Amino acid sequence: MADHVDVTDIDLDRTRARFPALGETDDRGRPIVHADAPGGTQAVDRAIEAMAGHLRTGSANQGGAFATSVRTDAMVDDARRAAGRFLGTDPAGVVFGPNMTSLTFHLSNALDERVMTGDNLVCTQLDHDANVSPWLQLAARNDAEVRWVSLDPTTGRLRTDELSQLVDERTRVVSFPGASNALGTVVDPAPFVSAAKEVGALSFMDAVHAAPHRRVHREASGVDVVASSPYKFFGPHAGLLAADPALLASLHPQKLRPAPEHGPERWQTGTASFEAIAGTGGALEYLEQVGMRAIEVHEAALTRRFLEGLERLGSVTLHGPAEAATRTPTFALTVDGWTPSAVASSLADEGINVWSGHYYALEPMRALGLLDAGGAVRVGFVHYHGAEDVDRVLDALSGLAPAAG
Ligand SMILES: Cc1ncc(COP(=O)(O)O)c(C=O)c1O
Q1: Looking at ligand 1, which residue's alpha carbon is closest to its atom 14?
Q2: Nearest ligand 1 atom, CA 206
Q3: CA–CA distance, 397 with 361 (Å, rounded to integer)
Q4: Index of the ligand 1 atom closest to the CA of residue 130
């Protein structure tokens, strides 16, 4: 097997040393393979230090006259600016929250005023439910129709040619994923954005799975709103929503009287988790140092190696894009004669963390016919993995294969 994974701009030893959790070993002394990255990545040292540093040096509410509060203000401003650079968006339109789901739900509730009986919303069969359920509820509350861009189960890609039939002058929202947390498919925002723009609908991209793998640029891609989660890009459990500040200002989110009337904090309820915002800033500082291009190149090598290895495992079926291009190193698999949960348990015994089931990707699993069959095993790598991790997973999977003959 070619050793091409090591020939990338990512210095794996130095990179891994920055993630303390990667030093963890199983009861046989083997490093744990954290191949559950699409469910949450391990935190980088800079994020951990920033988070602990905020608490250690003193935390205070924002807007006070004293130094600790002034420091909190500056930290939040820095993190907001870093999030703006990361998501290619004006920092004045960056909203911090507890997670992507809450922020998306909050936005969808505020869109009640824009959705009337007989309108329609467009969702996709490739989305995590956090980018489906809020829109289903928005539609149900307002007697609107939900229309679906279908998933081609053989290619793992969306049939975007359907958009011309689905989107019309009554479409209010077009939502889509930046990438699939289940199949690893990377989605081009362009057809969704242009279909939405043509009829004046709001475009919404769930960038949670895309953000640790690919450059996301809200303004360059023309998407109205983008959401992501720092715990999927090496930071703490938190959420980010980014939009044009004018769009946010034009809506009326639910808020209590003391919340500010203007700015992104108008969308935040109660006191923010300042330590999580500090940690988010730390993760973003790290990503700026590494660069998304280096990450993409390294991950492409991991993807090729894993796909090549899978070809030799006759009893394992890959669901999703079979080609290495325009996908992340996230793989949904089923193994002949094994339930997905039994595979996950068996891999856990080998010191390998993987998820099984539907991982909230209800629509993709339904489209693949796997929803009522236990879903699939999900193996997910990020840039801190190397050839050894890929091979450990392949070896463990080959150990599950029914004996030949
Ligand atoms: C693609 C995708 N979207 C949305 C979510 C929900 O994110 P959060 O946990 O921040 O609400 C997840 C979480 O797994 C996800 O993978």
Answers
A1: 39
A2: 3
A3: 23
A4: 4
Residue the block writes with tokens 């500090």: 278
Three-state DSSP class for residue 177? strand
Q: How far apart are CA 139 and CA 108, in angstroms?
A: 10
- Decide which of 288, 306, 335 is a domain's last residue: 288
Helix (H, G, I), strand (E, B) or coil at 186: strand
CA 395/CA 108 separation, integer angstroms: 44
CA distance 68 to 376: 48
- Which amino acids bring their CB within 6 angstroms of ligand 1? 38, 99-101, 128, 130-131, 177, 181, 206, 208-209, 229, 239, 360
**Beta-strand pair 355-357/376-380:** antiparallel
Say how many domains are in the chain: 2
Nearest to 303 by CA among 291, 311, 314: 311
* Residue ranges making up the domain that contains 334: 4-31+291-398
Spatial separation of the C-alpha atoms in residues 34 and 7, rounded to whole Å = 22
**What are the tokens at 248?**
């946010």
CA of 7 to the centre of ligand 1 (A): 31
Atom number of ligand 1 nearest to Cα 99: 10
Amino acid making up residue 2:
A
Helix runs in 334-385, H state only: 340-349, 362-367
- The pTM of the full predicted model, rounded to 2 decimals, is 0.96
Atom of ligand 1 nearest to the CA of 229: 10
Ligand 1 geometric centre to CA of 129 (Å):
8
Query: Last residue of a domain, which of 269, 288, 307?
Result: 288
Ligand 1 centroid–CA 392 distance in Å is: 27
35: its two tokens: 């191949």
Q: What is the pLDDT along the chain (405 residues), one digit of tens a residue?
A: 344 454 568 999 999 999 999 999 999 999 999 999 999 999 999 999 999 999 999 999 999 999 999 999 999 999 999 999 999 999 999 999 999 999 999 999 999 999 999 999 999 999 999 999 999 999 999 999 999 999 999 999 999 999 999 999 999 999 999 999 999 999 999 999 999 999 999 999 999 999 999 999 999 999 999 999 999 999 999 999 999 999 999 999 999 998 899 999 999 999 999 999 999 999 999 999 999 999 999 999 999 999 999 999 999 999 999 999 999 999 999 999 999 999 999 999 999 999 999 999 999 999 999 999 999 999 999 999 999 999 999 999 999 966 444
225 with 259, same domain?
Answer: yes
